[in-house]
């Protein structure tokens, strides 16, 4: 009986040690990746009658990441804020309430991997949002609330 009690005590002590020291795998860590966000030089006519491309997000290297684990926060030059989340039904990031979305032909499988890109643009219901100036982009990994990218982008 004493040997059994000692064995139980050792197992409990080891379990508590692992739990307290964080070795039990609790919590999520951010993926390791390199992102580049640039002005979309392809279409910045900023027409009020057509969808305008604003910027391009490129996955330059590192881990493949599930799109549903990404949140994109964008602030335009006028201080308006947009939150783009993954819309799996339409395979794009979107803030349909406020009017931004992405062109995601590269990532229609729901993962963002090395060599892929997407364009942040106006949605078809909000054709007057795009403008030149400094836009702020913050990309967050949702499971750990870690910031993957946080910079100003000058759109010309």
Keyphrases for this structure?
mainly beta; elongated; 9-stranded antiparallel β-sheet; single chain; 156 residues; 13% helix
Describe this structure in words.
With 156 residues, this protein is mainly beta. 13% of the residues lie in helices and 43% in strands. It is built from 1 helix and 11 strands, in the order H-E-E-E-E-E-E-E-E-E-E-E.
For the largest beta-sheet, the strand count, sense and barrel status come to:
9 strands, antiparallel
Would you count the extended β strands for me?
11
β content, as a range?
35-45%
**Succession of helices and strands:** HEEEEEEEEEEE
Strand order of the largest sheet: 1-2-9-7-6-5-4-10-11
Q: What is the straight-line distance between the termini?
A: 78 Å
Mean pLDDT: 85
What is the tally of helical segments? 1
Tell me the structural class.
Answer: mainly beta
Global geometry: elongated
Which runs of at least 5 residues are low in confidence (pLDDT < 50)?
none
Write down the Rg.
Answer: 22 Å
Helix content: 10-25%
Explain the layout of strands and helices.
Layout lengths: L1 H20 L11 E7 L13 E10 L2 E2 L3 E6 L5 E7 L4 E4 L4 E4 L7 E2 L4 E6 L10 E9 L4 E10 L1
Antiparallel strand pairs: 1-2, 2-9, 3-8, 4-5, 4-10, 5-6, 6-7, 7-9, 10-11
Brief overview:
By secondary structure, the chain is mainly beta. It has one helix at residues 2-21, and strands at 33-39, 53-62, 65-66, 70-75, 81-87, 92-95, 100-103, 111-112, 117-122, 133-141, 146-155. The relative contact order is 0.22.
């Amino acid at each position: 009986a004493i040997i059994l009690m000692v064995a139980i005590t050792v197992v409990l002590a080891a379990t508590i040690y692992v739990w307290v020291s964080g070795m039990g795998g609790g919590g999520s860590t951010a993926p390791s990746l390199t992102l580049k966000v640039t002005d979309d030089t392809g279409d910045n006519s900023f027409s009020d009658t057509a969808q305008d491309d604003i910027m391009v997000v490129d996955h330059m290297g590192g881990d493949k990441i599930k799109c549903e684990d990404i949140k994109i926060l964008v602030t335009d030059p006028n201080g308006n804020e947009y939150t783009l989340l993954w819309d799996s039904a339409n395979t794009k990031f979107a803030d349909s309430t406020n009017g931004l979305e992405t062109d995601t032909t590269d990532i229609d499988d729901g993962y963002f991997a090395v060599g892929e890109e997407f364009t942040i643009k106006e949605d078809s219901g909000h054709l007057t949002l795009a403008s030149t100036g400094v836009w702020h982009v913050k990309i967050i990994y949702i499971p750990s609330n870690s910031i993957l990218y946080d910079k100003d982008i000058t759109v010309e």
